[in-house]
Amino acid sequence: xxxxxxxxxxxxxxxxxxxxxxxxxxxxxxxxxxxxxxxxxxxxxxxxxxxxxxxxxxxxxxxxxxxxxxxxxxxxxxxxxxxxxxxxxxxxxxxxxxxxxxxxxxxxxxxxxxxxxxx
Length: 119
What we know:
- This protein is mainly beta.
- Helices cover about 0% and strands about 55% of the residues.
- It is built from no helices and 11 strands.
- It has strands spanning about 5, 10, 20-25, 35-40, 50-55, 60, 70-75, 80-85, 95-100, 105-110, 115.
- The strands form 2 sheets. Strands 2, 4, 5, 6, 9, 10 and 11 form a 7-stranded mixed beta sheet that branches. Strands 1-3-8-7 form a 4-stranded antiparallel beta sheet, with no helix packed on it.
- Strand 4 (about 35-40) and strand 5 form a beta hairpin.
- The protein is globular, with a radius of gyration of 13 Å.
- It starts with a strand and ends with a strand.
- The model has no long low-confidence stretch (mean pLDDT about 95).
């Protein structure tokens, strides 16, 4: 059974770039039929899908975040990484890495990591 774990800083300053890494075990990020996704939840708000990467390495991003978001990967470590540039306090949220399947099924989640952007 696949497991995902987020890692990265809990505090970043406005205008900096946030980088969070997801380490996957029990499954390969190069296996077909899965998408490796990032979802966040700001305090008091709903979940926001940010973007994903498929098994080839192609990416797709939410239109509202596309200009500031990129996802990379290290297949030798079975990891994929979120990069969010020019952060503001509105980017404060709990960030999750998620395994997504066709049809929008977000079946496997990391525990989530709190990220605070100072003001």
